[in-house]
């Protein structure tokens, strides 16, 4: 996995972990990366110092570094969270915003749901007081 320092259009700094540079490029082009501070999807890589490879001995040390272990724990936790939601909630597809709103306003019985929503739909739901949170996207390669 590759860690990039990222910046949104409002200069908020945050980190992102990606399977490869091309994975970042694809997700950025599809507006799938959002700033955790403001929600902007206008995200770019920030300038950061390169991680220069050393000897095999140092590469072995890096693979078991606290940062690598933490990254793997985070991926494991994100995978478990996603699986829990998928196993215990109703999938409503692209009707997520509409269904969440109806449940919030008690127009239909409460149930836990997940599905797809645009960034704009998610913002509107939050402004209305509807509790929503993005599910982590974990690729099969990240989960291994």
How would you explain this protein's 3D organization?
The longest helix has 23 residues. The chain is 43% helix and 14% strand. The chain is built from 6 helices and 5 strands, in the order ββαβααβαβαα. The protein is an alpha+beta fold and 144 residues long. It is globular. Helix 4 links the parallel strand 4 and strand 5. The protein has 2 domains: 48 residues; 70 residues, no CATH class. The strands form 2 sheets. The protein has a 3-stranded antiparallel β-sheet with strand order 2-1-3.
What's the SSE blueprint?
Layout: E1 2-8, E2 13-18, H1 21-29, E3 43-45, H2 56-63, H3 66-88, E4 90-91, H4 96-104, E5 113-114, H5 119-127, H6 140-143
Parallel strand pairs: 4-5
Antiparallel strand pairs: 1-2, 1-3
Q: Which stretches are low in confidence, meaning pLDDT under 50 for 5 or more residues running?
A: none
**Order of strands in the sheet with the most strands?**
2-1-3
Number of helices: 6
Q: What is the radius of gyration?
A: 18 Å
Distance between the termini: 11 Å
Which sequence of SSEs, written as H and E, runs from N to C? EEHEHHEHEHH
How can the largest sheet be summarized?
A: 3 strands, antiparallel
Assign an overall shape. Answer: globular
Structural descriptors:
alpha+beta; 144 residues; 2 domains; two-stranded parallel sheet
